[in-house]
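Same chain as my last thread, 131 residues:
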Amino acid sequence: METRLKGVKAAYWAVTVLFCLQMTFTAYAQLRLPQVAEAFIHLGFPAYFRIELSCAKLIGVALLLAPAPRRLKEWAYAGFAINLASALIAHLAVGDGPQAWGWAAATGVLWGLSYALWRRLPTRPTERSIA
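reply #2:
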């Protein structure tokens, strides 16, 4: 049982770090790369939205990597799910091909693996939700 838990923890951290690196890179790209700013215009989003989105991504990454209450991590995962689904919808709505929406789809797979593994981790007594 202990060996299985260690395997789940190792897989969780490996996938979550990859996911968080991808989210951090996209936040950086949204803030600093002109071609990404142009992509947001192409999708019909206002310029301020990419700044808000980048800040939200960085906050979400911090919540996933730091010791935080389970409820906050759950909200971070929910926010990332909405972000990734919205990215796919936005690209598909303007007729973009897989070269544009492929990153969101691949990152969505990492998100799903990270979330599924996180749900398999045992909760500490201080983290149990009040229901």
